[in-house]
Amino acid sequence: MVDRCLINNTTPAIVVDLDGTLVRGNTLIIYLMCGLRHLLSSGHVLSAIKLIMTVVKRQLRVISHETMKQTILSALSPHTAILDTFRRKATKRQNRDVTYLIEAQQRAGHRVLLATAAPAFYVRTIWPGDFVATDFSIDRLMLECRGDEKLKKVKQWLDSNGCYLDTVVTDHFDDAPLLKANAGGTNILVNPDRKTLIACQKAGINISAVYH
Fold first, then answer.
1. CB 36 within 8 A of CB 46
2. How many CA atoms within 13 Å lie on the side-chain side of 32?
3. Which of 65-69, 75-79, 202-206 has the lowest mean pLDDT?
4. Is the dihedral of CA 154, 155, 158, 159 positive or negative?
5. Can you say how many angstroms the Cα of residue 151 is from the centroid of all Cα atoms in its chain?
6. Among 172, 171, 173, CA closest to 203
7. H helices of the chain, where?
């Protein structure tokens, strides 16, 4: 657990990942596709081609995931038309099993925190509650809310809200720090791939349930 005795927090919290968990698929790709349609419809064909080439470079391992993400978000910084389309498409892809779990936990008195590496500017268009996310800015290097950084932000939120970590819901071993911090609680994997299942087993992480 996350030092619940030390910080004397009393309210249980469920922490839920976004990509591949609350939303089926990758929200960055959804946002990219909405952005490409917007660029093409407004006549910015060259800009669209440059973004597609960025994705190709990433697939070929020429650039890092972080560089690809920074490039996409810088080119498609918050725009009403893109965000509106993104909200509709991402909402339609919500995982109902995860949504029902969240609702059940809320009825039982749990607080809910969405914790994601996705950028805050589009997370807030699809999530009405509390969240920690990546703070994106065009003029500075992005520090992703991932791994240990995500755990740090989650701990800060727990402390600020008088909560302790009770349930973690994620699809990927990237959230191993959170899963390990919740060793005595409920850890749920959503559509995990084989690598994640093996990695969790090797790391001795207790998995309470697997959703599909």
1. no
2. 19
3. 75-79
4. negative
5. 12
6. 173
7. 4-7, 27-41, 45-59, 65-75, 80-92, 96-107, 120-126, 148-160, 176-181, 194-202
Per the listing, tokens 């990237």 go with 174
CA distance 26 to 19: 5
Residue 188: beta bridge partners?
A: 169, 209
**Whether 106 contacts 179, CB under 8 Å:** no
Residue 186 DSSP label:
E
- Say how far apart CA 210 and CA 111 lie, in whole Å: 21
Considering Cα of 103, then 152, then 65, then 34, what sign does the dihedral take? Answer: positive
pLDDT of residue 6: 41
Token pair 């790391």 is found at 203
Report the percent of the chain where pLDDT is more than 70: 96
Cβ atoms < 10 Å from Cβ of 204: 8
pLDDT tens string 117-149:
999 999 999 999 999 999 998 877 889 999 999
Q: HSE on the CB side for 79, CA within 13 Å? A: 17
Q: To which residue do tokens 């914790």 refer?
A: 115
